[in-house]
Amino acid sequence: MTAVVRALTRADIPAAMRIKEAAGWNQTETDWHNLLQLAPETCFCLECGGSLAATATAACYERRLAWIGMVLTDPAYRRRGFARQLMEHAIVALAARRMEWIKLDATGAGAPLYRQLGFEPECGIERWASTAAQAGVPGMPDLSWQDRCSALDRQAFGAARSQLLAVLAPLGAAAVADQGYAMARPGSQAAYFGPCVSRQPETARELLAWFLARHPRGPVYWDLLPHNTEAVRLARACGFAPLRRLVRMVRRGVPDAPPLGHDDSQVFATAGFEFG
Ligand SMILES: CC(C)(COP(=O)(O)OP(=O)(O)OC[C@H]1O[C@@H](n2cnc3c(N)ncnc32)[C@H](O)[C@@H]1OP(=O)(O)O)[C@@H](O)C(=O)NCCC(=O)NCCS
Questions:
Q1: Fewest 10 Å CB contacts: which of 11, 133, 225, 242?
Q2: Among the listed residues 158, 84, 150, 127, the one whose alpha carbon sits nearest the alpha carbon of residue 247
């Protein structure tokens, strides 16, 4: 059977959801739609014998950073080199667009492949979960997305994600003027807290309380960088516990990429493994 790599389209989403379900992941159809809206030219799939067998997406933040996600192979098609083919295709496509850096959050199954493709570990990233009923503090109004949060996000993340934030904000967003913001969105297993960028732990605590008030019955997920010890402290204090550990990995997209600064001490929750 011939394997063909091609662009992922909206028509592929039902099949992509089935592969996602087989991996037990939390994304919804809306997440796939958002990825395609953000990066219609750098979301790929591999078709084998007319079936969708594998996927890989790359959200592009300016020319600075591409974020690879949704690297999934249907269990029936694994160990045939499909994920490798898709990753190699994505790396070439990103180099053609002169994307300076490429990052991803690697599972244990994906990490050996990424190492072979030149990615190096940057830091750990953990999914924390809370299943207990939570006493959130209502009262913080759902604030609409504000431009100045974009600048805060860029400083913490290292590349401008304003398009991503604009797409996620309608699903749920709150901000404390010039101090921090957080977003919330549904998941197929659990509501998701993130991204959350905050100058101070106290502001992150307020934003988490806003989120928990929206989801009082759980379960809820939150992906954090464990070297941000304030984020860990807050998660523990609010009844969250670690569920999975992944490795954030990085690779140059072009040989002369200038350094990519970021400030993880302000990143209290990431936008999700597929978005960065
Ligand atoms: C990880 C995954 C995408 C690999 O897909 P695949 O199409 O089977 O991968 P490939 O056949 O291209 O294998 C490429 C390399 O990945 C590694 N690899 C693949 N599956 C692996 C596994 N189960 N355990 C360890 N390494 C594995 C190997 O290094 C392999 O090289 P090899 O064939 O020389 O041993 C697939 O197992 C999957 O969908 N897993 C669940 C979701 C997931 O964890 N995705 C990765 C997100 S970062």
A1: 11
A2: 127
Cα of 157 to ligand 1 centre, how many Å? 28
Is it true that domain 126-246+262-269 has CATH number 3.30.450.30? no
Q: Where are the domains of the chain?
A: 3-123, 126-246+262-269
Determine which helix (DSSP H) or strand (DSSP E) holds 258, and give its type and residue range: none
Q: Which atom of ligand 1 is nearest to the CA of 70?
A: 47
Which stretches in the chain have pLDDT values below 50?
Answer: none
Could you tell me which CATH class the domain 3-123 is placed in?
Answer: alpha beta
Phi, psi of 90 (to 5 degrees): -65, -45
CB of 109 closer than 6 angstroms to any ligand 1 atom? yes
Q: Are strands 120-130 and 220-224 parallel, antiparallel or unpaired?
A: antiparallel
**Cβ–ligand 1 contact at 113 (below 6 Å):** yes
User: How many angstroms is it from 72 CA to the middle of ligand 1?
Assistant: 9
DSSP code string of 209-221: HHHHHH-TT--EE
Distance CA 76, CA 78 (A): 6
pTM: 0.95
- Cα-to-centroid distance, 110 and ligand 1 (Å): 5
pLDDT digits (tens, 9 = 90+) for 207-220: 999 999 889 888 99
Same fold, 3-123 and 126-246+262-269: yes
What is the residue whose two structure tokens read 């002169």?
A: 98
CB 79 near ligand 1, within 6 Å: yes
